[in-house]
Amino acid sequence: MTLTTDADPAVDVVGVTKRYGPLVAVDDVSLRVAPGEVYGILGPNGAGKTTLLRMLFGLIRPDSGTIAVFGRSWSRDDVRTLDGVAGFIESPKFYPYLTGRQNLEGLRLLDGSGLPDRLEEVLDVVDLTGREDDKVGGYSYGMRQRLGVAASLLRSPRLLVLDEPANGLDPGGIRDMRALVKRLADGGLTVLLSSHHMDEVEEICDNVTIMNRGSVAFHGTIDDLRAMAPDPGHLLRTGDDRQAVAIGRARHPGVVVEPAPDGGLVATGSERDLSAYVADLVRAEVPLLAFTPTRTPLEALFFMLTDARPDDVRLRGKEAVR
Amino acid sequence: MTASTLASPRPSNTCARKEAGLGSAILWETRKLRAQLRSRALLVGTLLAPVAVVLVVGAQSRPPKDSLFGRFSTENGFAMSLLVLGFASQWILPLVTAIVAGDAFASEDQHGTWKTVLTRSVSRSRLFWAKVLVSVVFGLVALVVLAAATIGASLLIVGRQPLTGLSGQLIEPGAALGLVAASWATMAPPLIAFTCLALLFSVWSRNAAVGIAAPVVIGMVMQLVGSLGGIEAIRPYLLTTPFEAWHGLLAEPRFTGPILDGVLSSAVWSGASLVAAFLVLRHRDITGG
Fold first, then answer.
1. Where is the ABC transporter domain positioned along the sequence (chain A) (predicted)?
2. Which residues in chain A have their CB less than 8 angstroms from residue B117's CB?
3. Could you tell me which of A155, A167, A64, A74 has the C-alpha nearest to residue A112?
4. Measured in Å, how far apart are chain A's first and last C-alpha atoms?
5. What are the beta bridge partners of residue A219?
6. B 84-113 residues with CB below 8 A of A?
7. Residues in B 110-129 with any Cβ partner in A closer than 8 A
8. Is pLDDT at B144 greater than 70 in this prediction?
């Protein structure tokens, strides 16, 4: 048995690679999550986030590299690697012919002994009290998602791993899920969260790894990411696009005004330059119909990092920590 | 999720926690099996179907003379039990056990729950052996219920007359009951082997339909092969041969060699199936669900 210490990182992934035939699903990925940290893994679908998390849980074996969780590794400690770890991969799945309570009681059996009985407490946390004796087959997607969180909390984890926790939830469910994750993190829980929503990671996480096509495109803090973000773009609709473009080119060198793919214009520049440009349009009596942000700066950066070839991304982004 | 009742999460005491043992995994698998309508319906079926068969066959004016013990089945309860045994061993027993065993692993794929159970504190090997044990025990329970229902219904409906053995000897009712029960008991080794075969197909195919149908089809093919001439060299190794080993118990003098051979070949089939199934599960990447 491996004894863990407070000095051990919650998650230590070193040079992990996983191939499926010619496809490299995860390519030499390294990351380290400190205890108490809320860490985001961000990337588009197919970036390798879920494969990486499945390897952390021992569901998939890496071809090379090592994964340690609180100092324990699968090669040495087998299932004890998951001591203090809970979470779910993609949408949580349960036995539809059992009730929510029966599912949780069964999973508690598989958690071994030495854990407190928190079944009622966790049902209350996820707001499933009153529905726990209904069969899971009749649960909505959101209820199953919440049952997944309850099943995770049942293990009294030190590390909570959530893969796309807001997927498939309605706006209210997304808000509640994020609030819950924040509350758990505030209580000292280490959270490793994967998402393809920049705003989710920005709202919840301290540090982030952006993955693209199996590789790491960026490692760093949310503040680092913000510092790299490009100027915000705004969709501009006017009554006279030709004059609006002419004013921009003639008087506002800090603003780039281009035709938008779906009609109208896109104006890109710093907030200050854009303000001056819009004021000028009003003074010139160009009819201004709409002026709305296209993407947040971080979203723009995310797309920049993940749309580009991995080599290009590495040149522009911050290099991996290892 | 608006409740704000959660206090700060309690850090787990990793030293105090013990991983789930085989007993916990067996308990979990048993609970799941008990909750499934299919397994309960199957047990009810093994209890009631023999009664219906005995009633129907017993009411025939002309007994099925072409079948072993068929000639006496309408006038002798022991013969009726053995007639049903011969029929059940052809494909009923493989089907009964495969309905649960063939689904044991594949249902986790169907429901996407491998990731649910394997992210707890239980190893793949413990889950594997728990499923194996629960499936084998279920198969044996189904066999016991089927045998008890058949023998009970036959004796109650047809009667307890002395049984004419395969060598023409007359067997008194007390001894006949023991021999009929022993004949049913000889079904256990090949039944376990078919259970293990169904488990292998369940793990390998990840599909319950394949897990259930494949052992039944293989059993039928083996029955067919076993009925051909000129295959004496391979007949002892067929998984269906042990289903006929009970004939020696009803002969005079009795012979038990085929039963021992059947136990051996069933053990080899069971062992090979379980080793293959274990290796498939052990080395599998769980990418679905």
1. 11-238
2. 107, 110
3. A155
4. 28
5. A209
6. 111-113
7. 111-123
8. yes
Share of chain A above pLDDT 90, in %: 50
Nearest to A151 by CA among B130, B113, B16: B113
The chain B residue lying nearest A82, using CA atoms, is B121
Chain A positions touching B2 (Cβ under 8 A) are 127, 176, 179
Q: Quote the CA–CA distance of A168 and A148 in Å, as a whole number.
A: 14
Reported CATH class of domain A11-84+157-227: alpha beta
Sheet (strand A265-268) strand order: A256-259, A265-268, A233-238, A288-293
Tell the burial category of A49 from Cβ atoms under 10 Å away from its Cβ (0-12, 13-18, 19+): buried
- Do the chains contact at B115 and A93, CB–CB below 8 Å? yes
A257 has which bridge partners? A267
Q: Is the pLDDT of residue A282 over 90?
A: yes
Contact between B123 and A78 using a beta-carbon 8 Å cutoff: yes
Measured CA to CA, the distance from residue A168 to residue B103 in angstroms comes to: 29
Smallest CA–CA separation between A80 and chain B, in Å? 7
Determine the pLDDT at residue A300: 73
> What's the length of chain A?
322
Burial class of residue A43 (count of CB atoms within 10 Å of its CB; 0-12, 13-18, 19+): buried
Phi and psi angles of residue A157, each rounded to the nearest 5 degrees, phi first: -75, 160
End-to-end CA distance of chain B: 24
Interface test mutation site (partner A, options B2, B14, B29, B125, max chain A beta carbons within 10 A): B14
Q: Is A59 within 8 Å of B16 when comparing Cβ atoms?
A: no
For residue A54, what are the CA distances in angstroms to A18, A106, B247, B285?
11, 22, 54, 9
- Residues A118 and A160 sit within 8 Å (Cβ to Cβ): no
**Residues B127, B197, B146: CA angle, nearest 5 degrees:** 95
Residue B12's pLDDT is 43
- Residues B124-136 have pLDDT tens digits of 999 999 999 999 9
Residue A184 near residue B9, CB atoms below 8 Å: yes
A215 neighbors A62 (Cβ within 8 angstroms) = no
Enter the DSSP assignment of A233.
Answer: E
One-letter amino acid identity for A116? P
E runs forming strands in chain A: 11-20, 23-33, 38-42, 64-69, 72-73, 85-88, 159-163, 190-195, 207-212, 215-221, 233-238, 256-259, 265-268, 288-293
* CATH 3.30.70 location in chain A: 233-294
The CA distance from A50 to the nearest CA of chain B, in Å, is 9
- Whole-model pTM? 0.85
Closest-CA distance, A204 to chain B, in angstroms, reads 17
Chain centroid to CA B135: 8
CATH topology of domain A233-294: Alpha-Beta Plaits (3.30.70)
